[in-house]
Amino acid sequence: MDWIQGFLKKQVRLDAFDKVWKTLLSYPGFLVPKTGYREATQWQGREMRNLKRCIVDILAVALRQPGSVQVIHFMHALECVKALADFNMMEQYRSHT
After folding, report:
1. Are 1 and 43 in contact (CB under 8 A)?
2. pLDDT of residue 95
3. What is residue 40's predicted lDDT score, i.e. its pLDDT?
4. Three-class SS state of 30
5. Which of 5, 8, 9, 43 makes an SS bond possible with 48, Cβ 3.0 to 4.6 Å?
6. Which regions of the chain are under pLDDT 70?
7. Where are the chain's structural domains?
């Protein structure tokens, strides 16, 4: 998560990410975060599961409308976060075939 925060800060998109984070709506099986993304000091079980469910979508919204120089960096960042989220979801299974 530190990498994502550092990337967003470098690309001047951290405020956009926080804005999207604060506008998340509740739905069955998903709890709306009680604190802002940067305000969280420690991620616990339920909070981390919720974050894994929505991190790619929030990041995609925060990185929309990139400048011509940012396009390739944003695309690589989204691919990386998506791969990490996919791996994290797959690792919870007891058996892998």
Report:
1. yes
2. 81
3. 74
4. strand
5. 43
6. none
7. 2-29+42-90
Please report the pLDDT score of residue 66 as a whole number.
Answer: 87
Record the tokens describing residue 16, joined without a space: 């956009």
Tokens of 57: 């979508």
How many CB atoms are closer than 10 A to CB 92?
8
Question: Buried (b) or exposed (e) across 35-72, using 16+ Cβ within 10 A?
Answer: eebeeeeeeeeeeebbbbeebbebbeebbeeeeeeeee
Kindly state the tokens that stand for 91. Answer: 């690792």
Q: Which residues pair with 27 in a beta bridge?
A: 30
Check: pTM over 0.85? Answer yes or no: no
